[in-house]
## 1
Amino acid sequence: MASNAMTGGLVAGSHTRNELHVLHGDDEQRPPTRQSVSKTCRVCGDEIGYKEDGELFVACNVCGFPVCRPCYDYERSEGNQSCPQCNTRYKRQKGCPRVAGDDDENFDADDFDDEFQTKNHHDDSDRQHVTIHSENGDYNHPQWKPTGSFAGSVAGKDFEGERETYSNAEWKERIEKWKVRQEKRGLVNKDDGNNDQGDDQDDFLLAEARQPLWRKVPIASSKISPYRIVIVLRLIILAFFLRFRVLTPAYDAYPLWIISVICETWFAFSWILDQFPKWFPITRETYLDRLSMRFEREGEPNRLSPVDVFVSTVDPLKEPPIITANTVLSILSVDYPVDKVSCYVSDDGASMLLFDTLSETAEFARRWVPFCRKYSIEPRAPEYYFSEKMDYLKDKVLPSFVKERRAMKREYEEFKVRINALVAKAQKKPEEGWVMQDGTPWPGNNTRDHPGMIQVILSEGALDVEGKELPRLVYVSREKRPGYQHHKKAGAMNALVRVSAVLTNAPFTLNLDCDHYINNSKAVREAMCFLMDPQLGKKLCYVQFPQRFDGIDRHDRYANRNIVFFDINMKGLDGIQGPVYVGTGCVFNRPALYGYDPPVSEKRPKMTCDCLPSWCCCCCGGSRKSKPKKKAWKRPARETLHQEEKMMGKNYVRKGSGNMFDLEDIEEGLEGYDELEKSSLMSQKNFEKRFGQSPVFIASTLMEAGGLPEGTSPTSLIKEAIHVISCGYEEKTEWGKEIGWIYGSVTEDILTGFKMHCRGWKSVYCMPKRPAFKGSAPINLSDRLHQVLRWALGSVEIFLSRHCPLWYAYGGKLKWLERMAYINTIVYPFTSIPLLAYCTLPAVCLLTGKFIIPTLTNLASIYFMALFLSIIATGVLELRWSGVSIEDLWRNEQFWVIGGVSAHLFAVFQGLLKVLAGVDTNFTVTSKTADDAEFGELYLFKWTTLLIPPTTLIILNMVGVVAGVSDAINNGYGSWGPLFGKLFFAFWVIVHLYPFLKGLMGRQNRTPTIVVLWSVLLASIFSLIWVRIDPFLPKQKGPILKQCGVDC
């Protein structure tokens, strides 16, 4: 990392004010980056190599798709024997083994000795660098390759580590099974068994290393087919039901009938938007062992791609520093090469408390990281590791583990005490402001008016207590000045993108909230199985992981886990164009964040045949193969820019200590170019209008494999990093419009992912067996409702913006089912209006004695029964293929009603006021203390205006039930029949709002809420019955005698 220039000092400055201050820092120099040039295979990433006559090896003579000799041999022996690009069958070349289907006339007697050899004898064992291949045949950067091909020719010596994981018997068994498969394919004869055993192992490992890094696991047809059939049946039944409802009005309750039909029609539309994106659910599996075999060969440089990890915080007093420290510790101890991990922490509150916390965290990491790696600790966040109720001795064999664990736990407790002391000190700010340890005033004393700050806390040379290198850790606080729009979290994330691009420029970035720690130390490797895939990785904008949470009550009263969304909806989207971005736990591909389009290839030609005459092919609608046509890949926008950058030579980023920040340098060196090249050079001046006025950052966007520009110095990079986080940097650029996190909504995550999908990018949903990340969620009713309010408000803002999926980018590459899912994410808050009306109808019907449905006929009863049965069948079959429990599904249904009649309703009106009238309203929360230690926050009562609508609905429906029962008692048996329908709907509302009632009532001296609810209802009903029976009054027999009056 080049940013180790100021390991011991905080750098603060403002580009607009031409200020740069280095507080107690020193400089170090970084060696320049080397470049290498080579020709690489598009399947595996190795060098293609040359034939015996010195010519470049060409596998396919039709399209010239670049494939190396080992991949060519493997495709012929194990694959479909065709070119990956044009599907033309590979012809056998000299020195290659014969396979079934080779033409006899191609047989060369000189190649007889090589007939049954499956091993490639053209190993390039002296390769030193991994190179990157661009679509136009250009090559650059020697470190690693995120968007190309990665597997290479493999020799057995490269996999001694994998062989050691098996016993001799197991290894021989695997070799024998592989040889049997080869014999079945006709690739080897049983007579060849006299070959050297080492060759067999080499051949086996060659085949094993070239296997895919992941596979798609479709849902079994026995589970998904009945599910789809029921969906179609439910759609048909719904159409007949709505037809019946429209054609049979209730004339005695006409207004109620109209309201109910409108609500039911909207519910049907909402169900369609939610249901059909789940038509193609899939799951995926990754193969981490193959990833290691392919990119971490013994004796060669590690070729895994670097990753920059972003952690965002705002207020350390609301987001406890100890939680942020645990997240950072889990990142620093992740199971990934340390020189390829850099952690950037964004402090949007410019808090000295967080700055000091990170300094303490870095010191504790020197002991915590080697402990985790030595004993393979999971999870690697100490707070959660030491608090887990588990057998921590399981799978531990080293005698020293217990002693070292005890010592580490004691050190962590001392670390917590130091952090708590910092928090206690930060509660009261001194009048003169905070002062750093060396007596320098803290630059961020005014959180709304301060310069940009960068501190490289752990640099490239940082070592742990065992002398091993640690990942990089950088503190970043962007500049803030009055009068500038800072765009909250989205603006902070964009600042991190630019800073990381200047200092490390890893091709992939992991985005985490400060309360989401890495629960699975191999999470980054899981993502790399997709992003480093030679075919899929180029077209992926991000890999999204599900959110999992700690500290939620066992019954998940308010559906905090969101299991239905993460385990059902997201799997469905993964089968279309990919899951939506949910704001955290996501690994991004940098080109997607920069607004580039994904690489697009021309469609493959249709399959043809040579076995039929031309007239037959014409009649059948096919065509014979004509003379070969060379297919060329279309150049994406990023590669076009890259080609232009190459034509500029060394004039773009100048070597040495000269002024590398002067954009006028771009105009140098125009002599000697033709008009086309000159126009390309001049177009570079438009980069500043897109990315901002930073040549170093612009150069980083053109480096496909990441890395830093050649000839840069640490001091200049730090200065440029301060420049790119200045408050005015984004003015008159496309940041927040087309680049980075998109502005315009408090839910910037949905908007950002939507823009990427519109450009044609795909995303992937990765669900490892051990959850990759875990976080904390508000389990209190009021806090949960405010969280849902924020999400719904963001959806309303998107609905009222130009990015609304209803009308945005119809000429783009967004698939229809994916668009339907995005429409559902911005339309769902508006469901609150019909839902509130529909939940009020049962109470009105009970109080007025009217009903929204006229007298039921047999046909109408069939419609109702079929609709309810189809709803139940859909839910059961959905649970069957997804593995979600029925309790999670029920909790999700309950909170859909609770949130719909409270937070979603307020979000609609708040969004309309904010967008149309410019009025920004906030709902305040006041809290009371809780008594319980465990899950105490669950019973914490906080009053907020969001509680008013659900409370009103519960009271209305309970009063309606009492009134309806009393009316039936007074009117005799004839009125009980119509009453049951009304009571059914009223109880439907009460049951769905029951968790809300529990949260409203708290624990009530540990008396269950259900007891209180039934006590009130039954007491009221029995009181009415008692009054109706009137047992204490004497019963009269005979005619009723009335007292005569004056007119008797």
## 2
Amino acid sequence: RMFPHHQLFNQILYSTLKLDIALLDLINFFIQCSGCRGTLETKYKHFLFFQDSGDYPLTMPGPQWKKFRSNFCEFIGVLIRQCQYSIIYDEYMMDTVISLLTGLSDSQVRAFRHTSTLAAMKLMTALVNVALNLSIHQDNTQRQYEAERNKMIGKRANERLELLLQKRKELQENQDEIENMMNSIFKGIFVHRYRDAIAEIRAVCIEEIGVWMKMYSDAFLNDSYLKYVGWTLHDRQGEVRLKCLKALQSLYTNRELFPKLELFTNRFKVREKRGNVLLSDFFSGSEEALSNEDCENVYHLVYSAHRPVAVAAGEFLHKKLFSRHDPQAEEALAKRRGRNSPNGNLIRMLVLFFLESELHEHAAYLVDSLWESSQELLKDWECMTELLLEEPVQGEEAMSDRQESALIELMVCTIRQAAEAHPPVGRGTGKRVLTAKERKTQIDDRNKLTEHFIIALPMLLSKYSADAEKVANLLQIPQYFDLEIYSTGRMEKHLDALLKQIKFVVEKHVESDVLEACSKTYSILCSEEYTIQNRVDIAHSQLIDEFVDRFNHSVEDLLQEGEEADDDDIYNVLSTLKRLTSFHNAHDLTKWDLFSNCYRLLRTGIEHGAMPEQIVVQALQCSHYSILWQLVKITEGSPSKEDLLVLRKTVKSFLAVCQQCLSNVNTPVKEQAFMLLCDLLMIFSHQLMTGGREGLQPLVFNPDSGLQSELLSFVMDHVFIDQDDENQSMEGDEEDEANKIEALHKRRNLLAAFSKLIIYDIVDMHAAADIFKHYMKIRLIFLTNMLFNELVQEQGPNLDRTSAHVSGIKELARRFALTFGLDQIKTREAVATLHKDGIEFAFKYQNQKGQEYPPPNLAFLEVLMILCCLKFLTEQMMERREDVWLPLISYRNSLVTGGEDDRMSVNSGSSSSKASSVRNKKGRPPLHKKRVEGMYDETLEGSWLNRNDTIQTPGALQTPQLTSTVLRENTRQMGEQIQEHESEHGSEQDFLHKRGLMEDDAEPIFEDVMMSSRGQLEDMNEEFEDTMVIDLPPSRNRRERAELRPDFFDSAADLKESFVSLFLTVLIQMFFFWMGREF
């Protein structure tokens, strides 16, 4: 419920007779803001009842709760501001509030802990503001006192001096009081909650300490406080790290603070260059603090996949390398050299930077990173073209071939960025809607680049026509043109020049990248919506006619000569076939009937076995394109029955050829035939008749069992190959790693093609059974069951759990467990189902020796333990029990241990008799536990379950009653505290005294709910130094991290409780079913 400030202020600005009542209202205010429905009628006489829901005001969604949070924070600031002159110094209200918030911040209940931490941090911020005002008043009073004292004796006012001295004394006393309050909050709350188990609480602490350092830099901007921000830069949650970066950003934007940040920058910049980058303001503000090596580490972040980081790094790179320091002088120098643009040197520098970053060859990412800060440079296409086409002038070095290739690649990326106006793939969540201004800029840029490259592109193609890499990049430019300019600008002659150069490139190159780029360019220029379509179509048809005629003659010559064909005949067929195949991909060439000659080549190769593998691969691909284009014609028109029969005959004959090619000795031929078979079976499956196309039923093909077996055998032989064999086959290759990655990618594509046939029910499911046992993420329990059954059949029921076969199954289960991820809430139902299936499998069969012997599959419970990420049985427990029952005992204890730990962690918070009695009185009675234990005593006596007296199946976990931390009595002994301090190593105290403040240290260890100092409340009254040096409490060591207690508002804490209940239900039913009884 939203609260206006003045209603509560009327109660807080209390009279002398109502101190307790007003303070009680303030206490109830903080408690009710935590979501508690109860109230305190008398101070510290009633414990709290917390509502059942896991939500509380600070976490509830909706605009009203966001407003509640802002009002709550604002109220605390206004409260201190209204009371800053008298009430906060009365040693009553502030001491009580700080003690209350400190106690609540130590609560196991997240709502109390979160709300009180937020209130305490805002309270601290308000006190920092008061301390700053007091400091200003002290300085002013001191100056007035010095000025009055320096006057001549006759003019000096002694009464005024006494008043100023008295005022200075009062201000100093108030300053000491404020510092004591701030130290109490900092030591009692901040130093424990900044490493809380909950990310939101850690974020609140880091956000506020940034405010303190910026607001009162003289007191807080030092290494004693900066180290908390530095440690938290390694937080697991991005939300907390972001708060750290924002806090540092606000500091680095102020150059006056640089001297105080120097030690921190030198200490933590080594870490930052390995992780995320600070925002642009940090980069631009900390140039002087970063060495050249540090800057280079920042430069490489322009290739980051996270666009905000890359853009910030791009802005930093622009300011360091690509900004013009004296534009007028540079323009004058460019004109003297005969250049139209002064950006020539900057573009050369950009090319050098791109080439030097050898690990990052993604030009599109570099352009996108610099786009917002260096658009003027990146859109200077005239300068780029000038550097490529013209000879270097006096004073300029000629660009190398490698530099020219890099410049062309960067230029094409800038054209794409300007024409499409969105980041490259992998640099955004999708295309966003452009604003009117952005859309106008996009249109203007597209017109500008079109007008320029319509003229320049033919010249560039002419100069670099012999270089396949450069030509392939340059041929991407026309797809970004506004093709209407060819007609509206009367530039048809430049279109003819472009078509002439493209034809020359096609005749000169056989590389697939170049041919595909030419084919795509023709496809774009042939678009029917533009008036230039007829002109381009004529040029394209003439080109295809020439190559088809050349292909037909070369095929005849090759088939006539047979085995006597020389290399020239083979090259003529292969080169023309490559060109036609590349064009057939994007163009309908069925009227030239390429399928007939391709089929002849394939049949000849099958019958005589003398056809080169490259010709077979290209012939298969070209025939495939021909069939697809025929299918497109049929589906778009009204085909006759004869058309369907002709296509069916064509497809049938081609499928037979592909099936025969699966036994070819050449691996590329087999792989190509396999991929085409899978694609055609997918296309011509029963899916073809969907959408009202029942008339295409004659074209549906269903693979017979023989073809399915051949496809499966191919997958088993070429996909699931031994890694050692593959590594041996690649030994001695200079590009070993690249070849391994390429081979892995190829195998994945082969497996994906076959898997699609299984998914769409084209291949029978049982044909894929052999694949499932090789694949690690399909049907977890099915796979482990299958492997376990095979092992039982080989070794019998008495398995050797130390054997390599059992260890292999356990390792497989461990890898399966990693697929569930860290979010236990999302996987809760799946893991519970996994338990159920696993238990049913373990007790599925009865031991043939009798009921007193364990089931043969009982050992599977050990695998199930690993599969569900549960704890193992300790070695001591294993030594006390018979080996045959160890799987059951281990599985049972893996479930029970978590529940006992949860109960112990709840009850460990309070050991006083009063608190215990309250819990027992108010807690939920463990009826379920009594019922289950009683049932065991009556029905399972003498059964094999009770062979060991130590085995007891627990009931449901008792839900603890949550009580206020105000009632908890601190029973920790001073001796235990000293012993713990002596036993802990790697604490923050050791860090400060032994290694120095800013030496190498490990990342901070996050505390859980109850990780706090021993005797916080007693620390409130300690005397602190004026310098506010903090005496940090010891940190938990790494071994204690595994003992973090659960949070009662984290529903994942109930996960194992559900497992216990599920285990009891299923296990008891299986026992009675197995024993022939009815539950």
## 3
Amino acid sequence: MSSLSRELVFLILQFLEEEKFKESVHRLEQESGFFFNMKYFEEKVQAGEWEEVEKYLSGFTKVDDNRYSMKIFFEIRKQKYLEALDRQDKSKAVEILVGDLKVFSTFNEELYKEITQLLTLTNFRENEQLSKYGDTKTARNIMLVELKKLIEANPLFRDKLVFPTLRSSRLRTLINQSLNWQHQLCKNPRSTPDIKTLFTDHTCNPPNGAVAPAPVTLPVAAVAKPAAYTQLGAHVPLLKRPRSPPATLGMVDYQNPDHEHLVKRLRPAQSVEEVTYPTPRHQASWSVDDLPRNVAFTLHQGSAVTSMDFHPSHPTLLLVGSSTAEITLWEVGSREKLVYKPFKTWDMASCSLQFQATFKDAISVNRVAWSPDGNYVGAAFTKHLIHLYAYSGSNDLRQHLEIDAHVGGVNDLAFAYPNKQLCILTCGEDKLIKVWDLTGRKLFNLEGHEAPVYSICPHHKENIQFIFSTAYDGKIKAWLYDNSGSKVDYDAPGHGCTTMLYSADGSRLFSCGTSKDGESFLVEWNESEGAIKRTYTGFRRKSNGVIQFDTTQNHFLAVGEDHQIKFWDMDNVNLLTQTEADGGLPNLPRLRFNKEGNLLAVSTADNGIKILATATGLRSLRTVEAPPFETLRTPIEAAAIKNGSMEKARLVEDATETKVKPWQLAEIMEPVQCRLVTLPESMDSFSKVARLLYTNSGVGILALGSNGTQKLWKWSRSEQNPNGKATASVIPQHWQPNSGLFMTNDISGVNLEDAVPCIALSKNDSYVMSAAGGKVSLFNMMTFKVMTTFMPPPPASTFLAFHPQDNNIIAIGMEDSTIHIYNVRVDEVKSKLKGHVKRISGLAFSTHLGILVSSGADAQLCVWSIDSWEKRKTVALQLPAGKAATGDTRVQFNSDQTRLLVFHETQLAVYDASKMECVRQWVPQDALSAPLSYAAYSCNSLLIYASFCDGNIGVFDADTLKLRCRIAPSAYLSQNQLTGSQAVYPLVVAAHPLEPFQFAVGLSDGTVKVVEPTELEGKWGVSPPVDNGMLNGRTASSSATSSHTPDQIQR
């Protein structure tokens, strides 16, 4: 369907809505698939009208379109199933299970089996994961929140969630205009035309001769509202357009055989612009205050900025590429440099000989870009290469793909979804445009430009996916995703380098560039005619480079030129306003809006980035990290911001910018500096907390005591805790089944002083296995019943780990230094691994590398293949001088499945597990000089929580092993614990699986505490500064923040 047909559908939707044809509106939304009415969808979900919910969804997506769609349909059908069970309507539940949910069994058979098992329960809430299921209304609302997130993230709903901005009664207005023009064409026009029908063209037949044509202003009522609905004909002349000439932007268009005649007749009469509208225009209330023009602060990049891009959904996350080819990720709210990636080739051997020959030449970044879903980062370099990183969290950019993409420079890079598949588009000095999939396979090679390709702009209209490209010779071409050549070929203004961008809603196309003579152009295009719709004015001088621009809020344009940022209203060719951003900008500054349009990043002449903000933008910056941000402000300035005096706030900040304090270690000394909850009925004083786990769902904590007894605490949904997840703001319930059973291990004949308790939880939280010197017991987490026991001593089990791909396979570390690979289903040890000389104290799987890493009390690390269970490598822990190889060594994989955290009482260390090389090491020192007792990655692997035998807790940056926060015992221990005869300290630390700043500690006196930052702070300190990108250096503020490479260990 063409662009005009799509717009006609929107006009009809507006008409139907205004006429109160409610059912027709939603049927057209669904049948056209152009606009997804989230409000209507919410109403139907909340009403439980599941048939209508799925029918409406079917106009936009099918179950198997993508993972988002599959999850949407699954959640809806699961809710329908649970409601049937809740009504005790088992026959209906079986019907839903077989008819609606069966389709998902091919993707996750285990999950389908679990859902099926709910039929056997009197109350499905007996299932661990459904124990917090409330009433139907609450459950629907909770599901609706998840559905909205899935729909917004689903590429198939892109551009379908926002109804275009239309003046009221737009279709009536267009019909009145058409009738007005028809009246102009009348041979004998009347001064007061009598219009009785829309089914035929209007003509006047006056009895007393012809009257000179006069413009007719028809009120909206002239097109009478019918008592009964009359369908508009499909041949209203205005709804046709002349065919575009061959060299146009339009791909599909209407044609009108009467076009030439109509143009001739209209020339002497009133112009289109002069036709009066029957309804008043309502100008949107825009003002220059909607533009980010006030300088909030400056980030010091350290090298010239060449490209920037804000994250599509995190408005303060800024990606930067520079002239020295490094990639940097900034959290502009906290002014943190989260990631720094200096340039290096990832696999020189796979690069072309041409690149290898020029590798030593200077290289820089031409373009950085986020993928539309924010999961990938692309970087195009001035020599051959593009780098693709996978992004999964705050400072986690993982190498994903390196492509030797073009001969010479890669001038531009973009992402697109042809055939619903995320692809990378590149263009370069070799005059080519290439399309790649995420594996690096080249899908299309677009040839046709006669000069190097300068930029690319992928877009789509309905189901037509296409690409605009511009070249150094000023040629603009349009391509489909095939190898059949360009579909459009015409010249850019000034015949020079130009960049094309669409407005955020995809409805308007702009280009901006500079001719070979230095003359700059900013224009809007009429896509359907391939012609320039308007040319914006306001450029002062000729440029010695190509100007850059961006669009925002579907209303504004911004250009960096003449050491300034210039702004235009899209609907006005005259310059709206401009700013020098307090000076210091280069002649042609780079610039980029965030998606909300309330922040603007601008490059500076001294290798920095200025962040300009609106009042809303400033509030968003302060929300990211209010306390550190506020500490940099004077009281006068803070008051100015609260009173809305942006200019005053900015001036005060300028005056105080040079007084910014250096980074300081955050130290939590008092209980009021954090949120804390002690779990009720914790272990008794005769039992230490030996092991501690969060449930994978994040709603509970499981503790294993040194006496072999396990306890479970759960948080429930409430007004104070609407998501029902673990939190330090609410006291959880010590949970037991109705039977009153305890989860107690078999400790008959066991000397508990010598026993090493161990525990592991299945991925679905249904089963937990544990041991305390005796047999391993497998417990049902819902009933606490022992399902089976196995592996009786000797030797005793000392560590347990489920195989990540098969819950029936368990790796069991033993007291005698062996590792047993045990199959629960057949009750058989499949392999016995030998390589250590003392008991096993840690096991960690990496499916990415296909390995199991084991650690022992012998300070050794062993690497085993999970395919053959053969030993690949043994590595000795690098102990500080004078330290003996005693005590347990433990291991945990980073979420990237490559980096490995190794901790021992003498150190924290990070290894590259692909080579088993130690890349970072930290040893106890200064305020944290006591031996380590435990350590764990945060859920996003950006932090490491480490506990010490003197009660201190350290929060480390996971990449650098630099200390960012110290939590003193006085902050979380009670007065009795601090002053008691026995020292109380954490024996074990567990990190929340979903909340990166929450952790729990199990103490030596048997208590369990959950700790979080205050809501005001929101995080544990700030990452220490990175000195020139070198991550190993000692910071000046405190030696406690030092980290060392292996050859730098010192005390």
